[in-house]
Amino acid sequence: MLQFLYHTYPSGALGSISSIYEIVTKCPVLNAYLSLCHLPCFMLWQGTLLFTKLFPHCRFWDKEVLRAENDAQKPSLTRAIIKCYWKSYLVLGIFTLIEESAKVIQPIFLGKIINYFENYDPMDSVALNTAYAYATVLTVCTLILAILHHLYFYHVQCAGMRLRIAMCHMIYRKALRLSNMAMGKTTTGQIVNLLSNDVNKFDQVTVFLHFLWAGPLQAIAVTALLWMEIGISCLAGMAVLIILLPFQSCFGKLFSSLRSKTATFTDARIRTMNEVITGIRIIKMYAWEKSFSDLVTNLRKKEISKILRSSYLRGMNLASFFSASKIIVFVTFTTYMLLGNVITASRVFVAVTLYGAVRLTVTLFFPAAIEKVSEAIISIRRIQNFLLLDEISQRNRQPPSDGKKMVHVQDFTAFWDKSSLLSAVLGELAPSHGLVSVHGRIAYVSQQPWVFSGTVRSNILFGKKYEKERYEKVIKACALKKDLQLLEDGDLTVIGDRGTTLSGGQKARVNLARAVYQDADIYLLDDPLSAVDAEVSRHLFELCICQTLHEKITILVTHQLQYLKAASQILILKDGKMVQKGTYTEFLKSGIDFGSLLKKDNEESEQLPVPGTPTLRNRTFSESSVWSQQSSRPSLKDGAVETQDTENVPVTLSDENRSEGKVGFQAYKNYFRAGAHWIVIIFLILLNTAAQVAYVLQDWWLSYWANQQSTLNVTVNGGGNVTKKLDLNWYLGIYSGLTAATVLFGIARSLLVFYVLVNSSQTLHNKMFESILKAPVLFFDRNPIGRILNRFSKDIGHLDDLLPLTVLDFIQTLLQVVGVVSVAVAVIPWIAIPLVPLGIVFIFLRRYFLETSRDVKRLESTTRSPVFSHLSSSLQGLWTIRAYKAEERCQELFDAHQDLHSEAWFLFLTTSRWFAVRLDAICAMFVIVVAFGSLILAKTLDAGQVGLALSYALTLMGMFQWCVRQSAEVENMMISVERVIEYTDLEKEAPWECQKRPPPTWPHEGVIIFDNVNFMYSLDGPLVLKHLTALIKSREKVGIVGRTGAGKSSLISALFRLSEPEGKIWIDKILTTEIGLHDLRKKMSIIPQEPVLFTGTMRKNLDPFNEHTDEELWNALQEVQLKETIEDLPGKMDTELAESGSNFSVGQRQLVCLARAILRKNQILIIDEATANVDPRTDELIQKKIREKFAHCTVLTIAHRLNTIIDSDRIMVLDSGRLKEYDEPYVLLQNKESLFYKMVQQLGKAEAAALTETAKQVYFKRNYPHIGHTDHMVTNTSNGQPSTLTIFETAL
Prior knowledge:
This is Multidrug resistance-associated protein 4. This protein has 44 helices and 21 strands. The chain is an alpha/beta fold. The strands form 7 sheets. It has a 6-stranded mixed beta sheet. A hairpin with a 2-residue loop joins strand 20 and strand 21 (1218-1223). The two termini are 56 Å apart.
């Protein structure tokens, strides 16, 4: 079986499976219960696998969609669910019918036993035997209830689980099919919320649904029996019950309305949290934590206000359940007495027990059914709306009959940006007219590399069979060989859902390797060369693209125009239109705009492979041809790979922490103290005690009243009974007071408990979010998105919703159990003797159960996270998944994650039922002891005492096991509190503000000094910067170069203190480690490599703290040529952006980042490979604006493309974390042994010569401005401009 699981489950799952297996094998609890249900242990695996392998629900939904299309109607998910499950679920109604019938029969026999005591005759052995028979029937009914109740609940919970799993399967299946337009209408946060909260309603609604018909039926039967017992007075009690029903139904409707509104706020909060976690590095560099804190806090306030209202409704509902039977009995017997009837113990306790039976069903299960159905309808509607979103059109990519592979685009028009042609070929962009036909299998490499949670090998194979020779060839072609050797586990190294153990360059090459290994017919490569340095870029182009893919159709997107000579055809696009198409030679001969982008290099002696590589990116596109020549460069033949990325060192993604043992007292203390002051908590305890005392006293007073009345029944001269009446005003007055106290205390304690616990949830959420914002970046590298989001979605959902309800329910039932036992012992003191062994058995069972239950619940929590992580990861790589036709494989992986979670859930379900059966068995023993013990001691007892003790003992059935199970459920849910509290006390960064504050104008010079700086991302990690010492002068422009992993980004991380550096970094004579992080980070501007926009308005994205005027914002947008684009939006700057700003292109997002830098007006600007992913025109604009707007600033530029930094004042060359060279570019190029010289030469002779000439001109202009050097400049004949400048600005 484990061998089978190894193939079925994703990596990392076997650890959880072994945990489950260990729990089962060590726990006879499970084996015993599973054998009762005829489920051997191994069926845990097979059974849950079947839940996701057999999805009739999907088939019914698909049929419903077709039916609706044919009938021109909207499909109904509810109809599909009913058609799929109604037969199997209807059969379970038989259990409900038998169980509720037994509850109604019990009070009849209770009345017969009490009658025996009312008419007690010690000499009447027949009456005694009859009483024993009644007691036997009573206990048999009790045992039937004990078994049937749990069989019913087991099966309905399994039904709910199947429905939930089917829904999750459908939601994920739909997510993989969403069109781009549909993705704009939903968010990752909303889909996570559907999977985490909405589908859980199916687990709850299946439990209570049958009570919608069982409740009214039972009420009719009870009314008939009460009529026979107390006559017309019963109608008064039933009237109260009927009045309570619409009252509670109204609560249910209000609750569902609030639930719908709450879900909207929850969606928004989780969506924002998803963006915060994804973009945390940028948020920290911009020092925007407070802005996002305010945003989330406001969303949370709106959400919590709705939650508090719905909690108060729930509190009223529970309070009405608590006091309903008391009000009903009070009204009934007040009416009965006022009509002139005489109260008797048998009538009182038969009525009390009958009302007790109907109360549970009518005032708890029936309203719960209404509430859960209302919630389920809301959830079904939300899921249905999601399932009806537009899907991407499925295009057939089968090769034509002649076997020729091709991509054909004809008269294609669509609403597109500059990256849209590739998406059109993929089928992701629907045309407004025209056609795109693709014949052949597609492999796609996305612009932003996508890796999923798993090993490096599984990321490359992507479902394909492992073939060693082919695999090794791909690894070599994609320059990954040395990288994998440096990883601890090689290609079996596990990477996270965001690939946090790999550098950007490594992720790009893994993406490329995945595509190459697929052996497809058509390759769409969206700029895979921009994330790597020049040497590796050339290696990938020659060995991978030119050699390995030489027989394939390849469409290459690139900004590195030196490779265009190899293209068989080039397509020029301008403003979304095709300007011209032709070969490289044809374009050079023509006088069109293309000539300004390329330099004629007649002196180029090195031959690139013959034309054949297709090229496309904004202006370049070509079709396929065959490579006839292979590269012969010996230095690249063996793979000139990047060195190991020491700055992005492999961060081990540890398994999620899972606490062991019982939840400590400290967790409870922190939970309650987060909600209220200890004085309020003491008052709450006293209020609960008072409510229970009033509850018991009311019944005791009724019993006392009946006994007092029976003593007044005297026989006169054998002529019959003469009844003397009691003082009705006195007895009724006390009774009324006790009833009022019960109701008022019940309502007050319910509302106060909810207030305290919801307030606690709010406090803990805010603390957790504050802690997350102050956590170092390393925390986010080590913990995947799903793991963190799970705390904010599922765990906070428990604290908001389920835990307060469960705590209140537990408190109420616990106090009632204590009251029952106290009354029984007070009436028959010797009952305490058998209670001792029963108590010992109970304590043993509870301890035994909780040890298993806690671990199973914790396991269930940790196996849930991968489900969310897989969903989030899949949505990030949606285009890649669809391009490879890997939807089915991803679906199977999702189902495998679900199966693993379902196994843990199934274990929890079975352990709970096992425990409940045994608890009810203990209660049945208690009923037997009380019933037969009363008959044995008949001489010493009166009817009122027996009625009170026995009716209370019967209520213990169900209530006691529910109380204990709720205590376990509280402890299990406290695991969510534990998990939240764990995140409230994370390791923190340095303070945002310190006592030492820099002057407001700091830094006015922008001088940066690195003094023997060492840097590591974690205390146990390797040094990624080693003994770095450098001076960056005021207003100096410094280019930072080095191969991937050299320490370039680590230098920036040290400057921003993303982790604390060793050594000293000075900025304008102030030591950076002596001031607050916000004081430091706000004074430096950064344009990041991957531009990040957040959901919200464009105004908020530019100016989250409202520090600038509208005029300043518009001026900044005009500077970056985005003003017209923003003005065309419906709300201009106040238009809400799509999630992560996905309705803007990468180039536009990068321009927004530039606008942010312009607005901040800081003296120091850091550019982190900001133009790596943008087109030449955007790059030209960005470079131009940087030179204009930041001429008087200190600028640090990290670049892979050397032409962007060749005119810098100085170049800093890093290698393996050390500063190897630091001087002016031209000076470095004079030393042929320098690393910088070698890097330039790797670009080819023509490019190297051009860069050297540019460096020379800049050097002489800066150092010898009086010496004329115009005659040294090479002029482009097409426009008379210096070609070196043209290359610098546009030849990327």
